[in-house]
Amino acid sequence: MKMRNPPVNSLSLEFLTELLISLEKLESDKAFHAIILTSDCPGIFSAGLDLMEMCGRDPTHYAEYWKAVQELWLRFYLSHLVVISAINGVNAAGGCLLALSCDYRVLADNPKYAMGLNETLLGIIAPFWFKDTLVNTVGHRTAERALQLGLLFPPAEALQVGMVDKVVPEDQVLSAARSELAQWLAIPGHARQLTKSLMRKPTADRLLKERDADIQNFVRFISRDAIQKALRVYLEKLKQKKT
Ligand SMILES: CCCCCCCC/C=C\C/C=C/C(=O)SCCNC(=O)CCNC(=O)[C@H](O)C(C)(C)COP(=O)(O)OP(=O)(O)OC[C@H]1O[C@@H](n2cnc3c(N)ncnc32)[C@H](O)[C@@H]1OP(=O)(O)O
Predict the structure, then answer these.
(1) Model pTM above 0.90
(2) Topology of domain 2-242, per CATH?
(3) Whole-angstrom Cα distance, residue 203 to residue 226?
(4) Quick one: a GO cellular component term (predicted)?
(5) Is 230 a pocket residue for ligand 1 (Cβ < 6 Å)?
(6) How far is the CA of 122 from the centre of ligand 1 (A)?
(7) Who contacts 28 (Cβ-Cβ below 8 Å, separation ≥6)?
(8) In whole angstroms, what is the distance from residue 220 CA to residue 164 CA?
(9) pLDDT attached to residue 230
C-alpha cells in the first residue's frame, strides 16, 4: 500500500477514508495475507494528521474527522493481516501512529527521516490511545520522555529505543520489509492472528469502550481558542520556512 497524498501525505479526511477503504478491501479478500505500508511522496512517509482538518472548522466537522482517525487506527491496529511499514521518509505524529500500529517497522537510514509523536511541539497532546500504542512499543519511561518533549527520533535513535525494528540503507527499505514478511507468513495464520489479538485487544478495547467520550473530548479540546491559535501559529511557521 503506497500512500500518495502530495505534498506530505497529511491524513486528511478524504485520504483517511481512502486508506480505510483500501484496507477493508484487502482484508476481505482471502488471497491477501499481508500489507507493506510505504509512501509514494519522496522523503516523506507522512506529516501526520491534516492540520487543515483541525483548524477553523466547526464541531460537527471535528467530530467526523476524529471518528475517521479512530476508525483507521482500530482497523490497522487490529488487522488480521501482517502489516509491515517500510518507512521511507519523515514521519510525524498521526503518521507515526500508523507505523506504530504495524507488526514490524523498517526505517530508511537517512538522518532527515525522523519519526515520533511530536504533538506537544504543536501545543496539543497525544490522545491516550496514541500514548498507549507508543508505550506498548518502547516502554513507559521512553514513551513518557518522548511524549513530553515531542521527540522526533532520527533512525539510529529510533532503532535504539525500539521505535523501529530495523534500519537499512534507503534503497533497501522495501526489500528488507519483504524479507521480514517471509518469517511472519511462515507462522500458521490462525495462531499468529489470535496471538496478535491477545496482545492488542486490551489497548483497543479501551478506546472502543470510550469512543464517543473520546470524540467529545477531542472536539472540546480542539475548539478551544488557545488551541486554535497554537495550530495557526504552527501552520504559519511551516509556511514561513519557505521564505
Ligand atoms: C483532554 C484531552 C483531549 C484529547 C485531545 C487530543 C487532541 C490531539 C489532537 C491531534 C493529534 C495530532 C496529531 C497530528 O498528527 S498533528 C500533525 C503533526 N505533524 C507535524 O508536526 C509535521 C508538520 N510538517 C512538517 O514538519 C513538514 O511539513 C515536513 C517535515 C513533513 C515536510 O517538510 P517540507 O518537505 O519542507 O514541506 P513543507 O513543510 O513546506 O510542507 C508542504 C506543505 O504541506 C503543508 N503541511 C505540512 N504538514 C502538514 C500537516 N500535518 N497538515 C496540513 N498541512 C501540512 C505545509 O504547510 C505546506 O503547505 P503550503 O505552504 O501551503 O505548501
Answers:
(1) yes
(2) 2-enoyl-CoA Hydratase; Chain A, domain 1 (3.90.226)
(3) 30
(4) mitochondrial matrix
(5) no
(6) 9
(7) none
(8) 33
(9) 97
Give the closest residue (by CA) to ligand 1 atom 22: 47
Cell numbers placing 194? 489470535
ipTM for this model: 0.98
CB 11 less than 6 A from any atom of ligand 1 = no
pLDDT of 116-167, one tens digit each?
A: 999 999 999 999 999 999 999 999 999 999 999 999 999 999 999 999 999 9
Q: Does the C-beta of 156 come closer than 6 Å to ligand 1?
A: no
Point out the residues of the chain with pLDDT beneath 70. Answer: 243
Is 47 close to ligand 1, i.e. is its CB under 6 Å away? yes
pLDDT, residue 241, reads: 81
Choose one of 61, 67, 238 to mutate for the ligand 1 pocket test, by most ligand atoms within 8 angstroms of C-beta.
Answer: 238
| CB-based contacts of 199, cutoff 8 Å, min separation 6 | none
- Residues 6 or more apart from 130 whose CB is under 8 A from it? 93, 97, 117, 119
